[in-house]
Amino acid sequence: MRRTTLGITALLGFAGSASVVGYTTVARSADHLDSPAVIAEPAADINDQYSWMDGNNLVLAMTVFPAAVTGAKFSDKVQYVFHTSSGAAYGTTTSDVDIICTFDAAQVASCWAGTAAYVKGDASKPAGLASADGKFKVFAGLRADPFFFNLDGFKHTVATVESVAGTLVFDQAGCPALDAPTSALLRGQLQTSPDGGAAVDFFGPLNGLAIVVSIDKSLVNKGGAILSSWASTNRAP
Q1: What percent of the chain has pLDDT over 90?
Q2: Within 13 A of 64's CA, how many CA atoms are on the CB side?
Q3: Does residue 12 fall inside a structural domain?
Q4: Are 123 and 99 in contact (CB under 8 A)?
Q5: Which residues, 6+ apart, have CB-to-CB distance to 5 below 8 Å?
Q6: How many domains does the structure of the chain reveal?
């Protein structure tokens, strides 16, 4: 099974537009295997979304298809969308730009960055796809799942909380009041294996399908320097 670390430093066209008009049944999640309906369509099941700045570029990554194997494919019936919104201050975004990718049965990708940029082709090669001016780059393919989760430690912590649930006092926000020793115990369990050893990443041996976009921030920050993002998969009814 191929396993390559998620990245976009070597990623690689222009003009075109698209929207999600006519697409419904949106799956919004970042949780690896959620409801039965989502699990039934793994190519539309979002694992996680990541975003960070790389110099002048905004990098967005979406992983789908939990525990994907070699040969797993993006759906040709789903739109994969990064939603971005920019503004001058937190909570006051005024400009939206959607970055949309679709795939045909042969896994040829078509990706739009609002109405400013467009790329089409095989995005699974290490170089990916790039617009003529290099401001919009897309990679799409099988990658190692980058999410770290100590599942056994989490289950151990849940069992501990459930064992004392009847004695906990909750505040108005629904948060339990914990003394310092109990808080330290739970933190330790989350950070270790149940036997006290090193935490084990449940997703370490697993892959997912990743869409990774690098885009010049000038294409998504028309509203201001504060930028928010989220991802969705949208299937035509």
Answers
A1: 70
A2: 29
A3: no
A4: no
A5: 143, 144, 146
A6: 2
